[in-house]
């Protein structure tokens, strides 16, 4: 049985160089190349977005939920890329997802680091807004259904095992079915970020997810419909 996480780094390195023709065929927009973001070298734009307004619970919980959600997308993509006899169109889509969502995870983690570094000695409260920094609790808690186990669209361990064991058309079909549901869950989370969050970076991230993952759902639906 293939390892569920083996080769993600190799897949990412290869995918960034191979996206061109594949994403054009799928009608997607190739993500910009993204180097890992170190905490000591945070993009000033991320720092500005993090510190312009102290994040609310909605801001914080969107990031806390979307990182593991994206990480499972990488896992699903790695599994189908490791399967034998998967079509080039589906491989190109999986490679695109790995590149795009890996870059997003790096940026989200940089946002978290920038926010933590900007918190004053007294901390901020769960209800902190704007330029006000009430004096308790550096990190909001109580993310509710943003928690990993409650996020819509997450594949179960049994579904991951089934994809791990599948090959060829079976692996391709199962990947597309699972990833469509997974993306639909991300759209729910992103909609909440756009409508309820107040931090500029969080709202921008939500808008990107809404646009990009809706395109990917359309592409995956078309791939499923074209399968024998």
UniProtKB/TrEMBL annotation:
The lineage of its organism: Bacteria, Bacillati, Actinomycetota, Actinomycetes, Micrococcales. Residues 122-152 are annotated as: Disordered. Residues 59-223 form the DUF305 domain. This is DUF305 domain-containing protein. It comes from Microbacterium salsuginis.
């Amino acid at each position: 049985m293939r390892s569920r996480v083996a080769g993600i780094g190799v897949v990412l390195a290869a995918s960034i160089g191979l996206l061109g023709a594949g994403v054009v065929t799928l009608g997607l927009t190739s993500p910009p190349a993204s180097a890992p973001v170190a905490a000591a070298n945070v993009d000033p734009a991320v720092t500005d977005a993090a510190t312009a307004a102290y994040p609310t619970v909605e801001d914080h919980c969107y990031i806390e939920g979307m990182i593991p959600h994206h990480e499972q997308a990488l896992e699903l993509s790695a599994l189908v890329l490791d399967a034998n006899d998967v079509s080039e169109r589906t491989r190109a889509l999986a490679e695109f997802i790995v590149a795009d969502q890996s870059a997003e995870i790096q940026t989200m983690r940089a946002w978290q680091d920038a926010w933590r570094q900007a918190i004053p000695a007294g901390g901020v409260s769960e209800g902190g807004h704007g330029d006000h920094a009430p004096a308790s609790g550096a990190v909001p808690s109580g993310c509710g259904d943003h928690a990993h186990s409650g996020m819509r669209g997450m594949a179960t361990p049994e579904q991951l095992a089934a994809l791990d064991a599948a090959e060829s058309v079976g692996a391709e079909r199962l990947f597309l079915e699972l990833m469509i549901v997974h993306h639909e869950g991300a759209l729910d989370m992103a909609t909440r970020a756009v409508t309820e969050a107040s931090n500029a970076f969080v709202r921008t991230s939500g808008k990107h997810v809404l646009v990009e993952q809706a395109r990917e759902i359309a592409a995956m639906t078309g791939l499923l419909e074209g399968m024998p």
